[in-house]
């Protein structure tokens, strides 16, 4: 009986329980709420997550650190996949369509003809004769 309790005590350590919880979250795709995903999707959130992964690699089993890295990757992937409307609307507001294109505005500014529609008397003689 004593040997069985020692073996179960060795199996259920904090590292193993944390690894099992992360594996269950990855396999069953348990997603945190969108506020956490949006905060993790910022630069400070990513840096904090990477520091946490490095700490887990050093202090715990590297497999647990790898599982956390995979779970963080899935959270970031879902954050960018499920919330593209915000990004699309933001880019649409930033890129307002112009009335004229660049070429049209350059031609309007730099065209040599001053009076475009008044008394345009020009003579054209071809340089090659047939």
What does this structure look like?
With 130 residues, this protein is an all-alpha fold. Helix content is 68%, strand content 0%. The protein has helices at residues 2-11, 14-27, 34-40, 43-59, 62-82, 84-94, 102-110. Helix 3 (34-40) packs across helix 5 (62-82) and helix 4 runs antiparallel to helix 5. The protein is rod-shaped and about 110 Å long. The relative contact order is 0.08. The mean pLDDT is 79.
Can you tag this structure with a few keywords?
130 residues; mainly alpha; rod-shaped
List the helices and strands and how they pair.
Elements lengths: L1 H10 L2 H14 L6 H7 L2 H17 L2 H21 L1 H11 L7 H9 L20
Question: What would a concise description of this structure say?
Answer:
The protein is mainly alpha-helical.
Low-confidence stretches: none
**Strand proportion:** under 5%
Task: Write the H/E string, N to C.
Answer: HHHHHHH
Number of helices: 7
Summarize the main sheet: none
The general outline is rod-shaped
pLDDT averaged over residues: 79
């Amino acid at each position: 009986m004593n040997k069985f309790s020692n073996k179960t005590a060795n199996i259920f350590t904090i590292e193993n329980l944390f690894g099992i919880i992360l594996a269950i979250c990855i396999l069953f795709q348990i997603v945190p709420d969108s506020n956490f995903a949006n905060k993790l999707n910022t630069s400070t959130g990513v840096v904090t997550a990477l520091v946490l992964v490095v700490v887990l690699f050093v202090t715990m089993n590297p497999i647990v650190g790898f599982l956390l890295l995979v779970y963080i990757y899935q959270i970031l992937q879902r954050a960018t996949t499920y919330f593209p409307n915000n990004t699309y609307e933001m880019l649409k507001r930033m890129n307002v369509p112009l009335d004229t294109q660049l070429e049209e505005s350059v031609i309007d500014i730099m065209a040599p003809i001053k009076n475009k529609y008044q008394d345009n008397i020009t003579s054209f003689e071809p340089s090659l004769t047939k």
